[in-house]
Structures are given as C-alpha cells and as structure tokens.
C-alpha cells in the first residue's frame, strides 16, 4: 500500500466517520476527531469515564498523521502512518466494524431550486493475500452501480476528489437500488474469483518447488531410521504449513456511496 494511498484512505475514513479534516497537505493530515472516534482510537477510557461521571464538556482530540516524511513540512509534529503501523491496522479494524453503517452522499454543485438525483454505488475495499513461505498483499477497490450493474475498479481513487458527506445534502434525493447490496457483493466476489482463477501463479509454483526440495532434505535426514520418529511427522507438517500456497480475500471496509457524478 503506497503512502499516497494511505493518505487517501485516511481522508476517506475520517470523512465517512463524521470527523473534520482541518488540513490535508503534502504528506500530512490533521483531523478533529468526533467523540465517537476519540473513544474508538485514542485509548482514553479513564478520561471519558471521568467526564461522563462529572458531566464535563467533551474535548475530543485533534490529531496529525504524517503519511510521507519526505513531503511533510519539516517542523510538523504528528504520528507517522505506514502500512505496518499499529495505528493503521487499528483504523482498518475500526473501519471493518463500522463498515456496515457507512453511507455517504455526494455534495453536488447545483443551481437554485434544482433537485439532484443521487445514484447508489456499492463500494467494497478488499485485501487479497497471497500466502506461502512468502507473503504479498494486494489492495483492490471496487464500485458497483446498484442501478445498472456496471463495475468499476480503483473506485476509491476515482471518488477521492468528490465532495462527500455522511448526511444527504439539501435538494438531493436518492434513487432506490435495483440490485440489493448483498447481491452486489456476490457479483464483486464472483468477478474477483474468476480473475484470480484465470491468472498464472508462478509464486505458487516456486513455493511448491521449495517445498519439494525441503521435503527431500527431510527424507534424506531420516532415510536410515527404521521407524520414523514423531519429530519427522511434526517437521513434515510444518513444511506443509510453511510452503502450501493459498489465497485469502478479506473485505476491509465498504459502504453505499450515493453519487451524481459518474466516476471516470
């Protein structure tokens, strides 16, 4: 996951959860958290318990995330976010937990008195994990039009510059979906499954070869044993666990995005 993609993901996440993006520049993002997101992310249970007992005024935190240390201003202070950062994976988990409730609406530019239709899109952001003794993760974002069934890839990137709101704007109305979200998700899963099955997987073939070579070495080590000890079978099973190729698809987050603009 590239740093620019992380920056875009954080922007979209905090907009979707009702937080205020106070500044979003090259390599850094400053966010005023809502009470809910402060409780979810900032690990301040004693503060919130005390506040609720005393009836104090809530003061959710303002946080700065640095997404590119080379591009960020040299004097800025904040938390560096990269793919391996615990904070990013905490946000992934939060997004996963809240994803069923994320619903965003485009804020279109319109003339006075004009009523603007917003079309429903199912957005699903997924992680494809290729696993053997080596690991590789690929992130994909899909958008499925719930009216006509058209499927767009890199959907998250395509809507990054669209002004979205968790509340439907005045003088806008939503078009009822013809395709239900559950059915739309199955279409996306079917597309991705067909794509993965049609691809060549040299990484899996290479893993199988390494597995075979290490199995030969293991057999050679125990070839003079009249009866194979338990350790032989333990090591053999361990090789299978280590080298056996597998592909996992994990839904990170998603939601219904109502758009007036057709993603390019």
Automatic annotation (TrEMBL):
It comes from the Bacteria. InterPro entries: YqhG (IPR024562). Pfam families: YqhG (PF11079). This is YqhG family protein. It comes from Siminovitchia terrae (Bacillus terrae).
């Amino acid at each position: 996951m590239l740093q620019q993609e992380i920056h875009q993901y954080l922007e979209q996440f905090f907009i979707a959860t009702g937080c205020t993006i106070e500044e979003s520049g090259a390599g850094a993002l400053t966010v005023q958290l809502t009470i809910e997101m402060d409780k979810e992310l900032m690990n301040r249970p004693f503060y919130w318990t005390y506040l609720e007992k005393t009836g104090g005024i809530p003061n959710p935190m303002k946080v700065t995330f640095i997404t590119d240390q080379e591009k960020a201003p040299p004097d800025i202070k904040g938390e560096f976010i990269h793919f391996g950062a615990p904070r990013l994976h905490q946000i992934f988990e939060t997004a996963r937990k809240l994803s069923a409730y994320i619903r965003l609406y485009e804020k279109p530019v319109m003339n006075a008195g004009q009523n603007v239709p917003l079309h429903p899109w199912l957005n699903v952001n997924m992680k494809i994990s290729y696993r053997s003794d080596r690991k590789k993760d690929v992130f994909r974002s899909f958008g499925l039009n719930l009216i006509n069934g058209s499927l767009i890839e890199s959907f998250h990137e395509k809507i990054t510059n669209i002004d979205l709101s968790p509340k439907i704007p005045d003088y806008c109305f939503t078009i009822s979906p013809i395709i239900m979200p559950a059915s739309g998700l199955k279409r996306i899963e079917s597309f991705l499954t067909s794509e993965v099955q049609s691809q060549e997987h040299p990484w899996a073939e290479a893993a199988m070869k390494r597995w075979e070579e290490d199995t030969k070495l293991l057999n050679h080590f125990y070839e003079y044993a009249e009866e194979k000890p338990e350790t032989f079978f333990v090591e053999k099973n361990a090789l299978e666990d280590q080298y056996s190729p597998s592909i996992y698809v994990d839904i990170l987050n998603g939601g219904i995005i109502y758009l007036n603009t057709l993603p390019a």
